[in-house]
Amino acid sequence: DDTGKRIDGKAFAAALRTRVGAATADLERRHGVRPGLAVVLVGEDPASQVYVRNKRKQAEEAGMASFHHTLPEATTEADLLALVERLNQDPAVHGILVQLPLPGHIRAERILLAIDPAKDVDGFHPVNAGRLASGMEALVPCTPLGCLMLLKDRLGKLDGLEAVVLGRSNIVGKPMAQLLLGANATVTVAHSRTRDLPAVARRADILVAAVGRPRMVGAEWLKPGATVIDVGINRIPDDRPDAEPGKTRLVGDVDYESALPVVGAITPVPGGVGPMTIAVLLRNTLIACARQRGLTLDL
Ligand code: NDP
Question: Which residues are recorded as binding NADP(+) (predicted)?
Fold first, then answer.
């Protein structure tokens, strides 16, 4: 039984979407502007199609305008750059999201660099990464910002806490470390070359796992009472006794069942960090829209 220990990201995300929806309606009523999110999908990756559909649907549910651009797999880099440039210039578009991964013949870096940093609601442009690292106002990557919101909601102030981030990607690990540092935690970033990962993890009052290895983090990696944020989304064969043969299921980077007796609090997979990502994307779109109009919002 995980009552009291489970961090309910699904419920938190729903509440955040409601707040964003209310602020969106308010913005439109008072200033006559409707936040617009453009989502660009190149190719037919099935997982990306699901993500993109959910992003559009939830943007519309929050009262935003959503602009959908589906391009064929064979789209050239030049064509995609031209679309990004059009969206940069379009006053109805306040946020631009190019779904990753892109087909191999397109250099993702070139595309990310072309997005207007003011419209970069994924927060992947180096200008936004640099602004975050410098403690300036920035658009912050959605997944790590969602993790920080869950941590603050659970723990209040993070001052002086030992935080360990497993993973150093530009999308999750690095911005997560910057956010924790900004919140006055003492931060260690571990990765595939780290020696004695379990010993490093055991120092953590806050452990964020963003590695992509199913159930890698076991009970012996955890300090008793630690708050654990599991970012991993891994599909594995369903090995539970009552599962139909051939079925798969999602698990995190943390072995939830064995971690539960040790931790103070933990996010489940699914239903933890995952739902936060799109809710924060909507929040970023709203904030980008307000800033482009010279308004400030507090969310
Ligand atoms: P990446 O593959 O880009 O990065 C993984 C990181 O983990 C790297 O820094 C890598 O180290 C490190 N790593 C890999 N294997 C090990 C290991 N055995 N021991 C220690 N470190 C290791 O992944 P992402 O950051 O994009 O995503 C991480 C996970 O989070 C994935 O499961 C992904 O599906 C999930 N995710 C979930 C999201 C959500 O909405 N909830 C959003 C984004 C991602 P090195 O740098 O040395 O190679």
Answer: 167-169, 233
